[in-house]
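Subgroup meeting minutes
Present: P.N., E.W., G.H.
Scribe: E.W.

1. P.N. recapped why we're keeping a running log of single-chain structure predictions: easier to compare across weeks, and new members can see raw inputs and outputs side by side.
2. G.H. added today's entry (390 aa).
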Amino acid sequence: MSTSHTIGVVCFASLGGSGVVASELAAGLAARGHQVHVIASAPPSRPLPASARLAFHAVPVTSHPVLGQPLYGLALAETIVEVCRRHPLDLLHVHYAVPHAASAFLARAALGAAAPRVVTSLHGSDVTGYGLLQGYDAITRTAVVASDGLTVPSEFLRREAEQRFALGANAAIEVIPNSVDSARFAPVAVRDPARFDRWFPAGAAAVRGPVLVHVSNFRAVKQVPELIDVLAHVRRTLPARLVLVGDGPEREAVVTRARARGIADAVAFVGPRADFADELPHADVFLLPSATESFGVAALEAMSAGVPVVAYRVGGLPDVVGDAGILVAPCDGAAYADAVLALAGDPARRAELGVAARARAVARFDRARTLDRWETYVERVLAAPRRLAS
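Output recorded in log:
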């Protein structure tokens, strides 16, 4: 695209799909010549590259002496206003509806005629109701409908958004799949599972067996404690180990279950790791037992790295994984554990699915293809009349 724009990107800083998608998109648009301003409470967990066309603006969040809790939504709206006044934006792209779309709505009212166009990207739990913040449907719908553009990463989430926000089947919701940096998340010529040894006690590290990996923010919807049962099932036959990347509210439940099962030494908690792309292709199987997923960014990154995925057939995962992985009937824990055991014990099948997963990721979800779609969409939004609340 020949036209360069000044774009604001609002996102969460913590490890999670929407934050990863937003920061990667910001970096990609900057690399294509746009001036991009990322706005978040802290630098994104996946670091932004150094670039003169990419700036970060922190939202100053403090507790109120009377109200007590941090007023993040208002602080974000004020920060958006300040950024727009210092760096006039053509477009503000907010990721996740609650509270980002509402904050953008307030900021646009404050800016008046100087306000940028606003695009809201819905990511999943802000639509399906699994998020921690619920009960704000009227405010959220007002902000979402007032956005000049509205996007989702999958047909599943488009249908869910139409229903939750009463948008109707003819609503102008653009489906733009999330993408993967297929050069960064790539298979290796020779896998070396011993790279994971440093995270395990000496005894567990010395035993060679399949390495199972999971990456998430450990929210309840991710069903991470279930993985301990899966590991216990697999270890009755194979000396498997489990590497858990990320952190969140379910961590203690996972630790407790691993200890109760007597397999704590076979479970490694490595925390949020921005550098895990280097380790991922050395894993044997990627596990995603989520009760729902609007897309599945972590699964896509594993696929791009040539690691086969075992997940439930929910949400947008069938569109992402397709037949290049194993999808199990929704929340059948016994069937899921059997599928993981079967794949973990079959190196030839793992290799076959790994090749298919990589091919699907590159053909359908490569970063360059998605950036093309985003640039085209930005031009359409900027050329169209503003959308009004209804």
